[in-house]
Amino acid sequence: MTPVALFELILALLGAALLLSLAAGRLGFPPAAALVLGGMALAVAPGLPAFDLDPDLIMVLFLPPLLLESAYFTVWRDFRASLGAILSLSLGAVLFTTLVVGLVAHAVVPALPWAACFALGAIVSPPDAVAAKAVLARVALPRRMVTVLEGESLVNDASGLVLYRFAVAAALTGSFSVWAAAGSFAWLAVAGVAVGLACGLAVNALVRRLHDANAVAVLSFLASYAAYLAAEEVHASGVLAVVACGLMMGGREHETFDAHVRRHAVSVWEFVVFVLEALVFVLIGLALRGVLARSGGDLGALATGLPLAVIVTVACVTARLLWVFPAVYLRRTLSARVRAQEPRPDPRVPLIIGWAGMRGVVTLAAALALPVDFPGRDAILVAAFAVILFTVLIQGTTLGPLIRWLRLDPRQSLPEGHLDAAMARVVMNEAGLGALQRLVAPGSGALQHPRLVEEYRRRVRASSRDRDERGALAAEKTEHFAAALLAVRSGRSALIALHRENRIHSSVLRALEGEIDLEELHLKRLAGEAPAHGAV
Fold it and tell me: CA–CA separation, 145 vs 85, rounded Å?
């Protein structure tokens, strides 16, 4: 395939991903599942040019920015508070799933070497950060559950890839050392986190000296790739390096980014993440083309690998459920601190956590990266693909209905001493009012900005009233924001009419429309939370 043909194919895939995302939104179908199905349809479509998916390129191109974006918006305080549950899943569940899948695979195909069976287990054991984020973004869960599931998906690739590397080496060389595996994992984790923290500190220091929003956005993307590649260069975990870098950047963003840079960077990242996620899931579906190519292009030839694929998929899902239920309650039994700090989990919680183990790009890349002469490579690839399809298409599409059926309340009580948004808004407005009241004219002592002071007094009164009477004010707030949005939209229409009549220049239109956009977004945000938190 020529470079131009490859570029045209990428554009076609991106266009298909856009159409599939729009269709999924209209139908209320998870976009990730729709994109995978669309990729599968393209894989069997005649006339599509042949191309190979380089697993190393998939990992390097897609994984760092998607991991950084997820880690950046992870709240470190919540992550640290849930670290025990996260490690239980990212280490214990991965190891247990690898063991169960390996045993089951060997029972189904006794001719497959033990090391190859455990390599398959390591490939399918870690849930994927990209798939988890894509699915969890569309469901309503308590904040702590989201933190645990996203935190697990951020760090479990390291444990899964260590098991994978040693299983592959054992299958090819016939030797395995537990101590070597433990030492390798320790180095991967410690060195990876160290490299990521160093990259995060360096980026934060540079951002403080940059005032160009485009430069900051580019730097943030470079940071994800720099952390990943630097860690891989020293044979550490690139995944953990990117996660540590993202946590460091996200934890300091409120001090390092100004409002303009933050808004611009978030907009750029939203666009790029949408493109990368869309392409990732289309490519996952398109990987069926490679599976078919290895079977001579005959769908019927895949039947020989289906028994292993089905059994491995069932074992993979069942092993996670078997681990989660006892692990959730065992932690409470063994730790008085856990019993004191965490409420007793509802039985519905481990069921949802167990069902939310979606696999994705890491599983696909690991399966494709198996050496050509690896024992049972084609059967392993078919099984890995089946696990991805089941977890994304079945678990991903049924997770939302399952949560609604179980009637799990997504609201979470605030920790003792924490304020909600309405209370925090009062403190914020009072602080602004206090700062303005200290600005007095020398000599006379008169307020320097009385109209601004009066505006902030109005804000304090409104936010205090919202805090005290939030339930009774719901209808009034709805009417207020509807009227405010009507006024803003009428102003926009008048501004556009002036431009069409050639009474204002385009530069004036863009400048004033930017102000209107910010005001409309602000009102829509307040209107969205108006029943509980909106300020009039």
Answer: 10
Does residue 47 sit in helix, strand or coil?
coil
d(CA 14, CA 275): 7
Tally of CB atoms within 10 A around 202: 16
Backbone angles phi, psi at 448, to 5 degrees: -80, -30
**DSSP state for residue 212 in the 8-state scheme:** -
Q: What is the pLDDT of residues 434-477, one digit of tens each?
A: 887 888 777 777 777 788 888 888 888 877 877 777 666 667 77
How is residue 114 written in tokens? 């033990």
The residues, any chain, with a CB within 8 Å of residue 175's CB and separated by 6 or more, are: 169
What residues have CB less than 8 Å from 333, skipping those under 6 apart? none
Report residue 116 as tokens.
Answer: 């190859």
Of 153 and 390, which is predicted with more confidence? 390
DSSP 303: G
What is the Rg, in whole angstroms, of the alpha carbon atoms belonging to the chain? Answer: 27
**CA-to-CA distance for 509 and 496, rounded, in angstroms?**
7
The pair of three-digit structure tokens given for residue 431, joined into one six-digit string: 């602080």
Q: How many CB atoms lie within 10 A of CB 260?
A: 11
pLDDT value at residue 154: 82
**Which among 136, 138, 183, 164 is positioned nearest to 59, based on CA atoms?**
164
Q: Dump pLDDT digits (tens) for 49-63.
A: 666 667 778 888 888
Site of tokens 């099984």 = 383
The H or E element spanning position 455 is helix 450-468
Q: Can you tell me the distance from the alpha carbon of 151 to that of 131, in angstroms, rounded to the nearest whole number?
A: 13
Give which of 59, 190, 194, 81 is closest to 130, Cα–Cα: 59
Distance CA 150, CA 153 (A): 5
